[in-house]
Amino acid sequence: MPTAEDFNLELHRIMLEAMRAGKECAEVNAGELHRRVGDYPGRNHRMPVCCGVMRAALALDAGDVVLAEPPSGLGASLTIRYVLPRPV
Mind listing the pLDDT tens digit for each residue in 23-45? Predict the structure, then answer.
């Protein structure tokens, strides 16, 4: 079962891939992030944990933006645009 650390590592891996590709931002979707880590879709998914990690990485003062979110705020449609490079 994926942990918060698993989601955090994969989120940062996605950002690093985007930076290496010369992108100024990385748009990350919770459903896609969870699929990359594993166990989604499935009965034992960890979507609330995945979304919590994504929201914890959100830096509004750096220009990050929530592009889409479900009514509950925790679901596969949560999509965040993270500005690159990340603030220190």
Answer: 999 999 999 999 999 999 998 89
DSSP class of residue 2? -
46 belongs to a structural domain: yes
pLDDT band of 18, cuts 50, 70, 90: very high
Residue 70: give the domain boundaries. Answer: 4-83
Contacts 24+ apart (CB under 8 A), 40-43: 40/76
How many domains, the chain? Answer: 1
Extract the tokens encoding 70: 């479900």
Residue listed under structure tokens 């990385």: 26
Verdict on whether the full-model pTM lies above 0.85: yes
Cα-based distances in Å from 61 to 27, 43, 71: 17, 36, 24
